[in-house]
Every structure is written in C-alpha cells, then in structure tokens.
Amino acid sequence: ARRDGLAVEAREDAARRIAEIVLSRPEIAKADLVSAYWPIRSEVDVRPLIAALRDRGQAVALPQVTPDGLVFRLAAEGDALSPGGFGLSEPGPDAPVVDPRVLLVPLAAFDRRGHRIGYGKGYYDRALARLDAQGRALAIGIAFAAQETPVVPDGPHDRPLDGIVTEAGLIHPTGD
User: Fold this and answer.
1) Is position 148 annotated in a ligand binding site?
2) Record-annotated residues binding substrate (predicted)?
3) How far is the C-alpha of 106 from the C-alpha of 81, rounded, in Å?
4) Is 118 annotated as a binding residue?
5) Of 155, 151, 149, 168, which Cα lies nearest the Cα of 126?
6) 122 among the known binding-site residues?
7) Which of 65, 79, 135, 167 has the lowest tally of Cβ within 10 angstroms?
8) How many angstroms separate the first and last alpha carbons of the chain?
9) Is 116 a known ligand-binding residue?
10) How confident is the model over 19-32, as pLDDT tens digits?
11) Is 124 annotated as ligand-binding?
12) Cα–Cα distance for residue pair 82/104, rounded to 1 Å
C-alpha cells in the first residue's frame, strides 16, 4: 500500500493532524461512545487519538473479530488487550459489547465517493449494516492522503463512509 512508503516522521505528523481534525468535529465531540481501532500494519496510529477521546470523558470501543462478524467491546484505559484475528489487538471477552453510533474506520484505500478497501472480508460493511438497522451510524474513515485512489470498486453490499479524515482535512464523500 502507498502508506507503507511514508517516512516515520511523516506518518507521526500526519497522525497528529488527523487526530486534531477528528477531535475538532462536533459530531464526534457530542458522542458518548466512539469506536476506534488498534492499528496494525501501516495504518494511521490512532492510539494518541484514543487517549484524547478518553481524556474528554468519551468511552472508546474497539472491534473484535468473531465467527459471526465484528462486535464492538468497551476498551477502558488500562484494560489489557488480547491478540485476535488478523493480528488485531482486541478487548477481552469480559469487556461489554456495545453498539457504537460513531465509528472511526481503518482502510487500505479510499475514493472521493466514500468507498473503501479494507482487508477483503467485508467485516465492517456487515457491522455497519447491522448498526444502521438502528438508524444510520456515522462512519468516518481514517487514512493518509496517499491512500486516495480514483475509484474503489464497489458492490451492492458496500456501505460508503460518511467522511474520510486525512492529514489534508475532512473529505465529504460525493456518494455517486
């Protein structure tokens, strides 16, 4: 992925800028609970953003891969994380399962329509469909600007993101 070629300092600077943008968004600030992710591979490191959300008094959930798909579990500061599927670090089985209304979503690539490429299993699309059944959840992609691509192939079950935050700013998807 193009993000792999970014220098460490550039990645850290970009992650700080992304965190500033996310934290400045009113729709994020008013959420009692925000689902984030623990970074793997060369994903944007949102761990400082998670700490900032908690410092503001917001609860944070992290995804857990199960045989039935993604579930989201509360992840309080200091909670031990366990190794999970795909190299993920996940909350333990005793952490409460929650249904977040605001999600920060990792991705490998995105386009201006709000479509994303994940890791090919459709976990987030299915989880968002389940959450959207209770009223549309706010799904914000988190990426480096270098991950933008002209067109991401999409299918009937692909759920576009409501926004994408990169170090260059917030992208409002066109949806077409």
Assistant:
1) no
2) 43
3) 18
4) yes
5) 155
6) yes
7) 135
8) 25
9) yes
10) 999 999 999 999 99
11) yes
12) 20
